[in-house]
Structure prediction request, 107 residues.
Amino acid sequence: MAQTRASNRKVLVLAGDGIGPEIMRQALREVAGNVRDHEPTTVGYYVSQDVSDPCVFTTYERYPDQAAMDLHNSSQAVARFFDVAKPILDGDVILVTANEISNESGA
Prediction:
């Protein structure tokens, strides 16, 4: 049986267009760079921007276990991200934390 992995999906919705989407893109790229450079246990970190609404962003995060997820969520990079994001968010971040039961790659 495949190992159960922890995963997060975050949906972030911005208040209005303006320069918010560019600020959010840059802030999320910085988190992704930190994941690449400092989180070797993170299995995957994906960021997307809605094609029909540039104010909607989604992250898909995969971790081998809860400890790796906690390491990411308590990082300075995530804290800096929320310092930038909170003033331009339209409400709360929608967070779904789950245990993977299947994935196409078999990883």
Observations:
- The CA atoms of residues 5 and 64 lie 5 Å apart.
- The two ends are 12 Å apart (CA to CA).
- The longest strand covers residues 6-13.
